[in-house]
Write a structure and sequence with these properties.
alpha/beta; Rossmann fold; 9 helices; 14 strands; 26% strand
Amino acid sequence: MSAPFGSDRITLDIQLEPVSTTLELQEIRQGLTDRPRRLLSKYFYDKRGSALFEEITRLPEYYPTRTEQALLREVAEEISRRTGAEELVELGAGAATKTRVLLDAMQSSGNLRLYVPFDVSETEVRRVATELTCEYPDLLVHGIVADFVHHLGTIPPGQPRLVILLGSTIGNFTPAESSALLSRISRQMAPGDYLLLGADLIKDAEVIERAYNDAQGVTAEFNKNILRVVNQVAKADFDPDLYEHLALYNGDRERIEMYLVARRAHQVAARNLDLTLEIGDGEALRTEISCKYHRPGIEAMLTASGFRVADWYTDAEQLFALALARRI
């Protein structure tokens, strides 16, 4: 549905709440009854979770955000010139911290017209829309509050456009899920549109693990916050204090795996799921995966999904990469 907003340059589309809640309950039930148990990482992000993640991005151990930001500063003007995009569509926009670099470049080239932030957090979409229409006097914003995995069809038609999926968000899906998502994104784009994809690269395991086990314990709090979100959605009674944060690198699968490990056996009731769980002592609940990539793997996924890789940008230490791909 479309929601009224304070500026005539802002449109806000919100996925209908009953539909979203039904889908969420199905996803949570499936994950909690799987073996091993798991939750989708999107459930980190209520207001508190979004704030904690923004704090994580500023931690010294967490290299992905600052590396990607530095890359964007280096290549934004080239990307704007090369794509000729007038519209910027951001999947998983969050606080849109890195987005301004691209918006600045598009404005400098005289092309900037529309920004489409797509995110599950209505608070973030509203805040970003308000801030950016103040910062860019001629910018139109069409905010979408929904889950881009399920609701890509809500993106309004238009072109020429640049779609961005940054922050190694693609890594939160298995390889098969990533390929399917990229194919769905491709089908929403017109031939000649561009995709900019952020990918965390395979590197020394110690460097990767340190990024998910910061000394201040912010990531641990972020991890436990997923239980608070599930409690709210599923009317469950998870006690976050009964769990310890664990993040480790699985070299065989080339990914970080993040868990919450039960300190002792206990029972959890989820009233909205009509479900009672018997959690064992030391049982691990998986809350996130973050796949790491080599260039050939990313290029193969993009090619199979209807894109042609136009360029590949990475930092001197080969920590992180941006792949620019053209929709065929």
